[in-house]
From TrEMBL:
The keyword Oxidoreductase applies. InterPro entries: Nitroreductase (IPR029479), Nitroreductase-like (IPR000415). It comes from Bradyrhizobium japonicum. This is Nitroreductase. Its cofactor is FMN.
């Protein structure tokens, strides 16, 4: 087995390999071209996403895949509810802490500033913000929408597993040149989604995912990230310089 080749990199460079490129190239796309994506591609995305790890391999995910008329029916029902009866619908779970502590609060505020500025919407313009929220329910114009559910009898650990599965879906989509947007907003309308999609009572609607081609392929990521030093602490490493990065892929090392 060959010794892994190490590479010097510039400080802060995020992309060092094909998988790095896919992870760093994914962004929450909110404007899709609408160009169709075939069932075969979506099945392949799910086929690979199912290799997500899960505690004791229980694989606690369930996905409703929508396109065409089926997606349009869901969109129409949710848009109507958003227009007329928004307050009558609440998610079955809390996504955000009601009292966000720092540094999360200021990150959320920064998100709001960057997001609405990019859309030319004043943060005080409630009507324009609501119109933007409504676009969620049209899957932002994407040709394919997923509704992701989990069995409510499972515990919080299984939600970790589900998150890994959803991320795999986003990355596998990116591997096919597709963009995506995970959307917790769908959980609010579980009472509408349940009969429309025949979701059994024990399943809780967790989120939606829009998948398609970004209208602007080079739009890219809008949201910044905290530095590694802000969320990771290191102990016990011999090399303190952090300039050496393993590059050889294990399967290449086996054959060389
Ligand atoms: C579980 C989850 C739910 C989300 N829900 C929504 C949503 O309902 N609507 C939306 O526009 N974006 C939603 N997002 C996208 C986030 O706003 C986005 O991931 C974040 O701002 C970081 O931006 P990036 O993904 O482009 O890097 C969600 C993201 C995650 C992971």
């Amino acid at each position: 087995m060959s010794v892994p080749e190490a590479a010097m990199i510039g400080e802060g460079a995020a992309v060092q390999s094909g998988i790095d490129e896919i992870i760093a190239g994914r962004f929450a796309c909110r404007d899709f071209s609408g160009a169709p994506v075939g069932r075969g591609t979506i099945e392949q995305i799910l086929r690979v996403a199912r290799f997500a790890p899960s505690g004791a391999n229980i694989q606690p995910w369930h996905v409703y895949v929508l396109a065409g008329d089926a997606k349009d029916r869901v969109s129409a029902a949710l848009r109507e509810a958003h227009e007329t009866a928004r307050e009558a619908h609440v998610s079955e779970y809390s996504y955000y802490a009601s009292d966000l502590p720092e540094p999360y609060l200021q990150r959320r505020q920064q998100f709001g500033r960057l997001f609405y500025r990019s859309l030319g919407i004043a943060q005080t313009d409630i009507e324009a913000r609501s119109a933007q929220t409504a676009k969620n329910y049209a899957f932002f114009g994407a040709p394919v929408g997923l509704i992701v559910t989990i069995d409510r009898r499972l515990e919080v650990g299984s939600w970790l597993d589900l998150g890994m599965f959803v991320q795999n879906v986003l990355l596998a989509a990116a591997g096919h040149g597709l963009q995506s947007c995970p959307q917790e907003t769908f959980s609010r309308y579980h009472r509408i989604l349940r009969p429309l999609l025949s979701i059994p009572a024990e399943q809780m609607v967790v989120c939606g995912v829009s998948i398609g081609r970004a209208r602007d392929q080079i739009a890219g990521r809008l949201m910044p990230r905290a530095d590694v030093a802000d969320f990771a602490s290191f102990a016990g490493f011999e090399d303190q310089s952090a300039t050496q990065i393993e590059r050889t892929r294990p399967w290449e090392a086996e054959t060389s």
